[in-house]
Design a protein that fits this description.
Shape: elongated
CATH class of the largest domain: Alpha Beta
CATH topology of the largest domain: Dna Topoisomerase Vi A Subunit, Chain: A, domain 2
Largest sheet: 5 strands, mixed
Number of helices: 8
Structural class: alpha/beta
CATH architecture of the largest domain: 3-Layer(aba) Sandwich
Number of domains: 2
Order of helices and strands: HHHEEHEHEHEHEHE
């Protein structure tokens, strides 16, 4: 039976740990890298090391950043009375591009999923509750994805946040059911935020 060189096998094994990469995709990527300009390989390796050393999550909102707190949390121009709760850091991009929101964010880093074994303890829910204690936040916008798990997460959050007396709203469904926010265009995102409803 044919086997690649151990270095190639090891790289394919590492690549397969990335989301959406299987054995065939890993082999194609290794093939591409073997033909690539050596400077590209060096730049890629350097970027991966810098990613590990210089990029982390904001201690306030849990967005991806290279400074703590992140630029959004630090900004004096943001409306500190509104907090938009998202599943993932990349969900911020379409919202910011829509130019229809100027509040703060809180990233849960996932959604509840009994099938995947993801419970409230696995998400940044305790940290969200901590941010609401000082009374500065007047409205929480639940902008979890319009999927079964996203809706379940929003419903769970309504149950634990409602007793706190904060205004709760949910983005309108200009976002297709079953879709992910990170793929929404800015016009759709603006309409979804503008049409949010109180829960």
């Amino acid at each position: 039976m044919f086997e690649h060189a151990p270095t190639v096998e090891h790289l394919i094994k590492l690549l397969r740990r990335l989301p959406g990469i299987g054995t065939k995709s890993g082999q194609r990527l290794v093939s591409f890298l073997l033909k690539a300009d050596p400077r590209y390989i060096e730049d890629l390796a350097k970027s991966l090391i810098e990613l590990r050393e210089k990029v982390f999550y904001c201690s306030t909102c849990f967005n991806i950043t290279d400074s703590d707190p992140c630029s959004i949390c630090r900004s004096e121009k943001r409306d500190r009375s509104v907090l938009c709760v998202l599943e993932n850091p990349y969900d911020i991009i379409p919202i910011e591009k829509s130019n229809s929101y100027n509040g703060l964010y809180h990233i849960l880093h996932g959604h509840l999923s009994p099938i995947e074994g993801i419970t409230p303890a696995d998400l940044k829910i305790k940290e969200l509750l901590g941010r609401l204690k000082n009374g500065e936040i007047e409205e929480v916008i639940l902008a979890t994805n319009p999927t079964v798990d996203g809706e379940s997460t929003a419903h769970y959050l309504v149950n634990i946040l409602k007793p706190l007396g904060v205004k709760l709203t949910r983005i309108a469904m200009g976002i297709p059911v079953g879709g992910d926010l990170e793929y929404a265009d800015e016009n759709t995102m603006a309409k979804a935020l503008g049409g949010r409803r109180e829960i």
